[in-house]
Amino acid sequence: MLPLWIAVQFLSSLPVRLPGMPEPQQMGRSLLFYPLVGALFGALLMLLAALLSATPPILQAALLLCAWVLLSGGLHLDGLADSADAWLGGFGDRERTLSIMKDPRSGPIAVVTLVLVLLLKFCAILVLLEQQAWIGLLLAPLIGRTALLGLFLSTPYVRAGGLGQALADHLPRRAGWQVSGVVVVACLLLGGASGVVALLVASAGFIWLRNLMLRRLGGTTGDTAGALLELLEVAVLVALAL
């Protein structure tokens, strides 16, 4: 069960403490549990939506978005901000792009990107609540975190050393594809037509963003993986809200 707790600790702000420093093999296996963490996020968001059902929808959407950000600790939003700065400031150059991603400061492009993404998320959540299409609150975090697994299964990690390298090197690939397949079936069974739409939109977004990473960097980094997750979550929510 240690890989599960590693995944929960890394992807969330939930109070999970590990008994010690994990082995690289355990780090790699933790990727297999990323979809389960996404499902946990979705279940908590749906529970919160039910508890807040008597709240005005606009306030309910705001509270759900705050809870969503707090659950993740803003981890992936940070990756999105760094990637936005680097993509514009890198001027198409690989090394410059990677260098900007390591800079902890956020420029105006990062701030604008975060505002737009959170605004879209808020509006989409509001529409889904008004339509009582709560399943979107489950599908978006589930698919987003499964996309991280798919990214590490299919894309080279370009920064030597560190956490991302351990994840990439020790990920059980056959089990990873099997877990991804189970998630696809689960989305179809749970979401029906919404599940089909969510998977199609997420697949298209995944392919496009992965190709951007490969052309600019030759692979992925932790920051671009976080950006992928955030953008796919937004894409799924918006598609389901339309």
Q: Can you give me a brief rundown of this structure?
A:
The relative contact order is 0.15. This protein has one domain. It has helices spanning 2-11, 24-30, 34-51, 57-72, 75-89, 94-102, 108-130, 135-154, 162-170, 173-191, 193-216, 222-241.
How is this structure best described in words?
This protein is an all-alpha fold and 242 residues long. The chain has one domain. 79% of the residues lie in helices and 0% in strands. α1 (2-11) crosses α2. The longest helix has 24 residues, at 193-216. The chain starts with a helix and ends with a helix.
Dominant shape:
globular
| End-to-end CA span | 39 Å
- Rg: 17 Å
- In percent, how helical is the residue content? over 70%
Number of domain units: 1
**Helices and strands, in N-to-C order?**
HHHHHHHHHHHH
Beta-strand residue percentage = under 5%
Average pLDDT, to the nearest integer?
Answer: 94
Q: Helix count?
A: 12
Please give the structural blueprint:
Elements: H1 2-11, H2 24-30, H3 34-51, H4 57-72, H5 75-89, H6 94-102, H7 108-130, H8 135-154, H9 162-170, H10 173-191, H11 193-216, H12 222-241
Helix pairs in contact: 1-2, 2-9, 3-4, 3-8, 4-7, 5-6, 5-7, 5-12, 7-12, 8-10, 8-11, 8-12, 10-11, 11-12
Keywords:
0% strand; 242 residues; globular; single chain; mainly alpha
